[in-house]
Amino acid sequence: MAIDRVILVGFMGSGKSTVGRALADRLAWELIDFDDEIERAQGQTIVEIFRESGEAAFRGLEAQLTERLRDRRQAVLAPGGGWMVRTDLVDVLRPGSLIVWLRARPETLYRRHLGQGVQRPLLAGERPREAIGVILAEREQYYKKADVAVDTDGKDPATVADEIIARLAGVNHLADGEDR
Ligand code: S3P
Fold first, then answer.
1. Using a 6 Å cutoff on CB, does residue 82 contact ligand 1?
2. Could you tell me the distance, in angstroms and rounded to a whole number, from the CA of residue 87 to the centre of ligand 1?
3. Where do the H-state alpha helices sit in 16-156?
4. pLDDT per position as a tens digit, 73-131
5. Cα–Cα distance between 63 and 66 in angstroms, integer?
6. How far is the CA of 34 from the centre of ligand 1 (A)?
7. Residues 94, 121 contacting (CB under 8 angstroms)
8. What is the pLDDT of residue 135?
9. Is the pTM of this model over 0.70?
């Protein structure tokens, strides 16, 4: 089975959206950014959804979107940083996908989070740097279930995208060999 879907997972600020854009452009595949899709469908920002409906409701919307994408091919998917924790959702999309963990050091995540100017409810408290450490410690075990990990510290999105393309070519080459 050809791998014709890439799922970028990783913590908030790991670069899923920017790397996703670079990767989708190179592959001429579509980019589906989960947060953008959810905001568009709901007519509300992520912050508003968390504030007015709560985190559980947001997780429900992520689950619904995942189900809708089950058969989407030739796509780069960029779910939010909490998606990988839902292993049942990961199972829906894993067939035919290369799941890539964009790994970064906590200091890098903190710096990128500040630089992006994106509002993130889970980092909106008074101590975002500490929050990153705590949440990352909880989630790392899930991110490790990705097929490959790519270190992103000190790399620009284009470099990371090129590395992912090389990994994708590698797995598809192996799959070709199995078919013969
Ligand atoms: C979340 C990450 C966010 C967004 C929401 C929750 C998380 O997406 O989905 O604020 O639980 O890690 P990004 O990872 O794109 O920031």
1. yes
2. 16
3. 16-27, 34-42, 46-53, 55-68, 87-93, 106-116, 128-143
4. 999 999 999 999 999 999 999 999 999 999 999 999 999 999 988 899 999 999 999 99
5. 5
6. 9
7. no
8. 97
9. yes
